[in-house]
Amino acid sequence: MAKLPPIEVNAILAREELHKGKGSRDKALELLENAGEGPLAQELRDQVKKRGRQPFGAKHRFWDIGTRNDELAAGGASYAERMDTLAREFHLADESKIKTAIATYERTYEAKRRIDEENR
Asked: Coil, strand or helix: which one is 108?
C-alpha cells in the first residue's frame, strides 16, 4: 500500500487565515514560515509572493460555501440559520458576500449539471 503524504497542518491553517482577509495576513505568513516544504505550503508561498489581487476570500470559496449551504438546507435549517452558520464557519461578517458566493455556486452547479446531461 502506498504511503500517504503528510498532512500540512500549518499550511492548511495559513490558507484559512488568508481567506479571512487583510487582518489575518501576518498570522498566515508566520504559519507559512513554519509549514515545511510540502506542495500546499509551496503553492501558498508562490501565491502570496505574486503582486496584485490574491486568490483568497469568499469569492474564491464559493464552492465550499455553496455545498455547505446545501447541506444545511437539506438538514432543515432556515435561511437565517444558514446565513448565521455560514458567516461563522467562513468568518464572513458581510452577508452580501455569502449571497454572492451562493449565487455563483448555483450558476456553476447548474452549468455543470447541463454539461453532464449533454455528455450522457
From this structure: helix
Distance CA 86, CA 96 (A): 12
Q: How far apart are CA 102 and CA 28, in angstroms?
A: 26
DSSP letters spanning 48-105: HHSSS--S-SGGGSHHHHHHHHHHHHHTT--HHHHHHHHHHHTT---HHHHHHHHHHH
Instruction: Please state the pTM of the whole predicted model.
Output: 0.57
Which of helix, strand or coil describes residue 110?
helix
Question: Contact 35/10 with Cβ under 8 angstroms?
Answer: yes
Residue listed under C-alpha cell 502570496: 48
Quote the cell numbers at residue 28: 498566515
Tell me the per-residue pLDDT of 24-77, one tens digit each, with 9 for 90 and over: 767 777 777 877 788 878 887 877 776 656 656 666 778 888 999 999 999 999
Residue 95 and residue 120: Cα distance in Å, rounded? 38
C-alpha cell at 33: 514560515
By C-alpha distance, which of 107, 109, 72 is closest to 89? 72
